[in-house]
Amino acid sequence: MLMQVRIGTSGYSFEDWRGTFYPENLPKAEMLPYYARHFDLVEVNATYYRIPPPYTFRRMLQKVPEGFGFTAKVPKEWTHEGKGGEVAGPFREAIVPLVEAGVLLGLLAQFPWRFRDTPENRDYLRRS
Predict the structure, then answer these.
(1) What are 78-87's contacts with CB under 8 Å, separation 24+?
(2) pLDDT digits (tens, 9 = 90+) for 79-120
(3) Which domains does the chain show, CATH number per domain?
């Protein structure tokens, strides 16, 4: 079985990348298309802090070549605040454009160090 390996970073819109990765004068709106010429995957880290409306991902899809992959970080309300049941629906709605395009390649759930393998935590994950 042939496995495809993709290379990308956690996020792409960083001002301190200007002059090292991005040209100094590159407009912010052009960062993702420029990034997508060099990498074939990006982790959307912003979803950890705020669930965007679905049109955000539709716009992102228009800026990358066909087949460009995305991963998304699960919202912190889910992983750190125990509100998985509350945010699961809105998060799923937000990522629908990526799912429909077949380019959502994974979700990253960044739990705090104190989150342990316990029956209660496994139950929380199942319910979420």
Answers:
(1) 78/109, 78/128, 79/109, 79/110, 79/111, 79/112, 79/115, 80/111, 80/112, 82/124, 84/124, 84/125, 84/127, 84/128, 85/127, 85/128, 87/51
(2) 999 888 899 999 999 999 999 999 999 999 999 999 999 999
(3) 8-127 (3.20.20.410)
